[in-house]
Design goal:
The complex is a heterotrimer of chains A (about 290), B (about 300) and C (about 375).
Chain A: H1 2-32, H2 39-55, H3 60-83, H4 92-113, E1 128-131, E2 135-138, H5 139-161, H6 163-173, H7 175-180, H8 185-211, H9 218-233, H10 238-257, H11 264-278
Chain B: H1 2-31, H2 40-60, H3 69-95, H4 100-119, H5 139-157, H6 160-170, H7 172-177, H8 182-208, H9 218-231, H10 236-253, H11 258-261, H12 264-278, H13 281-284, H14 287-294
Helix pairs in contact in B: 1-5, 1-8, 1-9, 1-10, 2-3, 2-4, 2-8, 3-8, 6-8, 9-10
Chain C: H1 12-20, E1 28-35, H2 42-58, E2 64-71, H3 76-90, E3 94-97, H4 101-114, E4 118-120, E5 135-137, H5 142-156, E6 161-167, H6 171-186, E7 190-197, H7 205-214, E8 218-221, H8 225-237, E9 243-246, H9 254-259, E10 267-270, H10 279-292, H11 298-317, H12 322-330, E11 335-337, E12 340-342, E13 354-360, E14 363-370
Parallel strand pairs in C: 1-2, 1-3, 3-4, 4-5, 6-7, 6-8, 8-9, 9-10
Antiparallel strand pairs in C: 10-13, 11-12, 13-14
Helix pairs in contact in C: 2-11, 3-4, 5-6, 11-12
The chains are: A mainly alpha (about 290), B mainly alpha (about 300), C alpha/beta (about 375).
Amino acid sequence: MMDFLQYLLDGLALGSVYALIAVGYSMVFGVLQLVNFAHSELYMLGAYLVMLLLLQGAPLWAALPLACGGVGLFAVLMERFAYRPLRGANRLAPLITSVGISIFLQNFVQAVFSPNPQSYPVHLPEGIIEIGEDLLLRQRDIIVFALTILLTLGLEAFVRYTKPGKGIRAVAIHPQAARIVGVPFNRTVSLTFFIGAAMAVVAGALQGMAVNQIMPFMGVSSGLKSFAAAVLGGIGVLPGALLGGLVLGIVESLLVGYDLSTFKDGAAFLILILVLLARPQGLLGRKVLVKV
Amino acid sequence: MMDFLGYLSLPVTLLAIFCIQAMSLQLILGGAGLLSLGHAAYLAVGGYAAGAVTVFGLPALGIDPTQYPLTSLFIAMVGGMVAAGVTGFLVALPCLRLQGDYLAMATLGFGEIVVTVLKNVEVLGGTRGFKDIPRLVNPGVLWISVALVGAFLYRLYRSPLGLAILATRDDEIAARSLGISTSNAKVSAFVIGTALAGLAGAFHVHTLQFISPDAADFTRSVEVLLAVVLGGMFSLPGSIFGAIILVFVPELLRFAPAWVAEKRMLFFSLVVIIIMVRNPAGLTAFVNSFLLRFGRKRGTPTPSGGP
Amino acid sequence: MKRLSSLSFALAFSTLALSSSALAVVGEAKVGVILPLTGQTANFGKDSLDGMKLALEKDTSAPKLNLVVEDTLGTPSGSATAVNKLISSDKVSVVIGEISSSNTIAASAPAQSARIPLLTPASTNDAITKGKDFISRICFIDSFQGEVMAKFASADLKAKTAIILVDSDSDYSRGLRDSFKASFTKFGGKVLEEISYSQKDTDFKAQLTKVRKGKADVVFLPGYYTQVGSILRQSAQLKIKSQYLGTDGWSGEDLFKIAGPAAAGHYVSAHFASDDKDPKVQAFVKEYKAKYNREPSDMAALGYDAALFIKNAIRVADATDSTKIKDAINGTKNFQGITGVISLDGDRNAVKSAVITKTTTDGFKFHARVNP
């Protein structure tokens, strides 16, 4: 029983990283119906950019916002020059483009930094907390989880109570109507990309500080699973991304704990498919009516 | 000159296999309009099955594959196609009633599940991969197969089933109103496509003599997706053209100045991005049919002014 | 995928010398090299290639080896593709590589079918050479290595209990687990638990929590340095007290970078130690340091030996015909290498001694030598 609890708690930290990345997938899809496959590379870029800034001597509290700004700006430009021209075209065109950007970024970072794992100059506190005989928590896991909850709540508040935030929600619900009431469409889309990227950057930095290892391809598997998490939770819905990420993290942690770790990648997708078949809008999503 | 041709023999062999795989996806994606993002899984399943036939099946029957290469290869091909086709059928049943984007996600999910399943089949090597598969492929058999597959699909598109598939893609509701069984059409396209991918898989393992579970993963699926889309996803010869681009452009870049050659994938992906962004026009001619198939009726954003 | 352009040495003089020489010794040969130059085992590839290049620079006698190097990306499928390319496109006479056992296994079938000899400098899994007469190696095998560490644990460290951490994605790791388990049990020890991890993992908390609970005397960790580094580091964070035992897969400089201070204090079996007093070893270390500005690892030493071993075999075969080279390789006896005296036995494996090293803040240091 204690084992189960242990694995559950471990899963929360793991799931937090998925959740932070999932937010970006979810928001962009909500606003543009676009799966931005390059999003996981924003996570990777964030990890590298923060590392670079830290190596230059910047303190963490400065490096993180700077990197968020930098990668966020990149995401905005990416949307402007690669996706916006394709808005009239069919569904696949931006998808393929996002894949192309994804491959490009992986190879770019590989060329600039080297394909091998890099260690991180700053680490999360390495202390442990023992609860009784059986439970062992790491300080870094608690920090990651707490930070994720805070950020997600903050983002939800932003989207609920501020004007630009409401604009994002409006566009996600009905772009035409949003335009009619005066929501600046392009600016809102850019904002969405920026926020999604910023969250991904935080995820990347946290990951680097936690495991002391980043590589150009770190986005590949985390990205797919985060995407599954976003769909699981309800794509287009923020708390859904959080829930989906945490659920996936817990499932993975349980599998590893009970010696079924070779199944953990497939499990995420099995859950995804079951949800899609039973409840396509995800756990927290709104059901969308398709008019015939 | 002979050296150069000899140099090309492996890429050309891999190209043939890739052509078959690309054509098989073209049927599903461009022909039936089904957004299948996990297509590499079927090549992998076909490959593993074909390898199992020659490494376990035939010896169990007392036949040594290296003694009878062509027959063994043929039996393995059949095994691969059946395995992949059945897998495709099992995936199609639950998934084909999902709408566009969700279908894409589900097929992607299935692809990754196949990776996991293959990792756990210890007798086929598990995560370490399936090794020591006999080399049975010769280029003649391979290219004849490419031609046969091409001819088959060409005739298929002009047959009643093929026309039903195309009609289902263009306007499912109209097709149904004409009495076409659209689910039949979709499932058929999917199963035929995945079986052909399995054929490519059988060739793959009997050429490289090795296959590992990550042959089924999303990165591999993306490669074949790129080939089909770059070449023009609505045309069958387009998928061959795309396959050629995807195999030969990186190979040609190898002969460019060293600083370019070492970063081949970097430049190649840049080329892909530029092509897609500058030239979606070729795809927009069919925009309407696609919007009907995939679009959410709440309206897709349109560019605010501009070209 | 990344490819390196081929290294070429001067052609004209050798051909001239060849035609005018009464002995008609083979002037040059095309040698393929498959190594992990990128990926999780990139340290191995780099060190190995550096060792080979140093050897060929130092020994300029005939035959000249033209190395054609392909990056395997450190994966089995990359290795299969790389060896296929070298054989069909570059038409090499012989291939050296790979380092990781799973990768060498993947490359061995194409090499055997094409009847091109493949010599691995460092792959230790027993199964690699079985039944394939074109596949050979100049290093010891895992049934020996596992026994060495089991004996050390039992006799020297007086360990009664052990836990094994296995990399389930690696033939190497699994083979060593089997041989350690068998030997340790034979010496009276008890293996409490076998715990698996994957090369894709970066977080080992679940596994290490079990190790912590197990409280074994030693933890046998036959993995590759990328994961081992993270495991050691995280193990120290969880305040695990057991002694770790490692194998030659630990041998990468990134181990110390990733693990930090947690890397020190463990015993590791290896092919060579750079502070070994043997004059031949010291001469090699000196040259290597002069050229590359760092200490050679045992992968570098094995690369050095492999290059000269192949050169010798081609000289003995006196031909660039692959079958003749294969025969020469398989028949080599008493080749004097940096990593020991190499004689290939009936299974084309080298019978050599192993070195036990200790990890310190200064790298791997010689601890003991164990003879077969």
